[in-house]
Amino acid sequence: MSGQEKSKSFLKEYKIPIITAGVIFILGGTTVGASNSAGPGDLLYPVDLKLEAIQGSWINNSQGKLDFTKAVLEERKEEKNKIKGDEVKEKELDEKIEEAEDEIEEIEAAEAPETPESKEDSKKIESNEGTESNNTTE
After folding, report:
1. pLDDT (tens digit per residue) in 45-86
2. Rounded Cα distance, 39 and 90, in Å
3. Which of 15, 47, 71, 76 could tie 35 with a disulfide, CB 3.0–4.6 Å?
4. Residues 73, 83: Cα–Cα separation, whole Å
5. Residue 76 CB burial class (10 angstroms; 0-12, 13-18, ≥19)
6. Is the pTM of this model over 0.90?
7. Residue 22, SS3?
8. What SS3 class is residue 98?
9. Residue 126 and residue 128: Cα distance in Å, rounded?
10. CA–CA separation, 77 vs 82, rounded Å?
11. Which backbone phi and psi does 44 adopt, to 5 degrees?
């Protein structure tokens, strides 16, 4: 059997699985793309949220995480503006907005250098803890 005959045989044998895999790949990509524009109440909205969570987990540096979280926060605020009047969806989005704001605060707090005042405050707390333990042993 020559190389050309083997090639034809392979394509003939695996034609259906190759076409099926291609169709699944195209439909999957279309679903992911469509889910990005989904809003609260849409069928693909949970897919959008899950994809954002996965994207966020892949970001390793704090600046990238901060930028990504700010973009998600803006997306949630835009979604909230689009659904005015639906209290259930608004409440769900308020929770998502609050989560994003909390995450931004945590990232910014972790990035912020310790200021002289905060060093003094922690020294005062440490010295107060030391005098309190001395007072209780007496």
Report:
1. 888 888 888 888 898 898 999 999 999 999 889 888 888 778
2. 12
3. 47
4. 16
5. buried
6. no
7. helix
8. helix
9. 5
10. 9
11. -95, 5
